[in-house]
């Protein structure tokens, strides 16, 4: 059985006992065990602390939820970034392949240019050879048709004209050979330049493509690592959120458990008050039946009178400061030093009561009491807390008595609480209360 189900089971059993007690109290108000002992009553501080813890955990869950949402969004962005970088890497590989192909094509073009350059060189050599041959032939024919002497040695105009036509033809051939030589030289120079340029462009594009491929691959690797890191962080946040959510659930369970305990205690307190009212009415009926409205017997009157005198003496000190070690049978006195909290509040400079000092003053006409709550607990007859009545002393400290107060009935008491406070009337606190009250007046 879980803790929660056990708590609920105990609560059901306690409520059943409470219901039986109320019925018994209604039918037989003189029965002492009509209302069971009080259930645990968490203090206001416990309730406040548990609710604060629940709110704190809820706030942590909310903060972690926001952080997790941010981390998830970043993870999605990084996932998209990885996909984008992956595509860029693919593009870089494609571009690199194309650049390599262009580089190969440029090499082929460079090779063709070099071949063209070699062909131009061969043509140039042929042109040079044709020129040399023409010049040599011109010199060999110079005695008959070359130079100005060809004209001067002619015997008639017809021979001069024939020689002029031959010279003109030779000159045209020479000029054509020279022109071809020029063109061959220009063609070779252009082919050499084209070959160098094509090779340079090919190498540059190849280098750029390889660099782009390396950069794209590095960017892709970086993006993948970033996504891995963010995935781990997101998983950590998810685990932390789950852990805190579990703590929140436990804190909420604790709050509900304490609130259920408080509710059961308040139900017990209401039943206790109803029991006391029933007892009071029964006592009034008994008194009316015994004496037809006459006063109670001397013994009863004396006990009631003593109780009221004790209560009156205690009530007369409401508002008197708390002073540790203060109070005696005659009234409030200076407190004493304790070397700690009381000194910090200046109790040794105040005239007042501590808790046991107030009991000494209240019961001064009934019985002298020692100035120590532990001894006062054994100063009279001990009765179950459920049977406590007006004029009994209540004690706290299951691990060592540390406080005493005078019960006024109807769930109220008068006490000298602690340093910094004053004598007051307040509701009975059942947290850490002892299961027995001490009765000095029977």
UniProtKB/TrEMBL annotation:
Q: Which UniProt keywords apply?
A: Coiled coil, Hydrolase, Protease, Signal, Thiol protease
Q: Which residues form a coiled coil?
A: 61-130, 192-229
Q: What Pfam family does this protein match (any one)?
A: NLPC_P60
Q: Where is the signal peptide?
A: 1-34
InterPro entries in alphabetical order: NLP_P60_dom, Papain-like_cys_pep_sf, PG_Endopeptidase_C40
One GO-annotated biological process of the protein: proteolysis
Describe the location of the NlpC/P60 domain by residue ranges: 304-442
Q: Where are the transmembrane segments?
A: none
Identify the stretch(es) annotated as Disordered.
31-59
Q: Fetch the Gene3D superfamilies from UniProt.
A: endopeptidase domain like (from Nostoc punctiforme)
Q: Does the keyword Protein transport apply?
A: no
Which GO molecular function annotations are given, in alphabetical order? cysteine-type peptidase activity
Which family is it part of?
A: Belongs to the peptidase C40 family.
Provide the protein name: NlpC/P60 family protein
């Amino acid at each position: 059985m879980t803790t929660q189900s056990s708590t609920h089971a105990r609560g059901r059993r306690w409520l059943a006992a409470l219901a039986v007690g109320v019925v018994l109290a209604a039918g037989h108000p003189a029965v002492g065990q009509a209302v069971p002992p009080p259930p645990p009553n968490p203090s206001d501080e416990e309730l406040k602390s548990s609710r604060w813890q629940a709110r704190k955990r809820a706030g942590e869950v909310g903060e972690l939820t926001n952080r997790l949402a941010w981390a998830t969004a970043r993870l999605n962005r990084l996932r998209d970034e990885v996909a984008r970088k992956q595509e860029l890497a693919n593009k870089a590989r494609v571009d690199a392949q194309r650049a390599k192909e262009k580089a190969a094509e440029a090499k082929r073009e460079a090779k063709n240019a070099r071949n063209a350059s070699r062909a131009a060189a061969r043509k140039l050599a042929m042109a040079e050879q044709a020129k040399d041959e023409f010049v040599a032939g011109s010199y060999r024919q110079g005695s008959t048709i070359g130079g100005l002497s060809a004209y001067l040695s002619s015997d008639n105009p017809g021979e001069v004209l024939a020689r002029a036509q031959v010279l003109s033809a030779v000159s045209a051939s020479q000029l054509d050979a020279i022109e071809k030589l020029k063109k061959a030289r220009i063609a070779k120079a252009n082919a050499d330049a084209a070959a160098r340029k094509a090779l340079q462009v090919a190498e540059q594009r190849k280098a750029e493509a390889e660099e782009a491929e390396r950069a794209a691959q590095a960017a892709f690797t970086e993006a993948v690592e970033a996504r891995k890191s963010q995935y781990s962080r997101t998983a950590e946040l998810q685990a932390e959120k789950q852990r805190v959510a579990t703590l929140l659930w436990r804190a909420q369970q604790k709050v509900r458990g304490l609130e259920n305990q408080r509710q059961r205690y308040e139900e017990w307190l209401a039943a206790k008050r109803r029991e006391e009212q029933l007892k009071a009415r029964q006592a009034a009926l008994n008194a009316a039946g015994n004496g037809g409205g006459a006063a109670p017997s001397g013994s009863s009157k004396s006990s009631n009178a003593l109780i009221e005198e004790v209560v009156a003496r205690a009530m007369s000190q409401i508002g008197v400061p708390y002073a540790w070690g203060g109070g005696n049978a005659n009234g409030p006195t200076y407190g004493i030093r304790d070397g700690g909290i009381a000194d910090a509040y200046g109790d040794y400079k105040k005239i007042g009561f501590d808790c046991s000092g107030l009991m000494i003053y209240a019961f001064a006409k009934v019985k002298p009491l020692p100035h120590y709550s532990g001894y006062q607990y054994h100063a009279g007859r001990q009765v179950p807390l459920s049977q406590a009545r007006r004029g009994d002393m209540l004690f706290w400290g299951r691990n060592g008595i540390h406080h005493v107060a005078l019960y006024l009935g109807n769930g109220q008491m008068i006490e000298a609480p602690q340093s910094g406070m004053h004598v007051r009337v307040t509701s009975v606190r059942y947290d850490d209360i002892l299961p027995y009250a001490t009765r000095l007046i029977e």
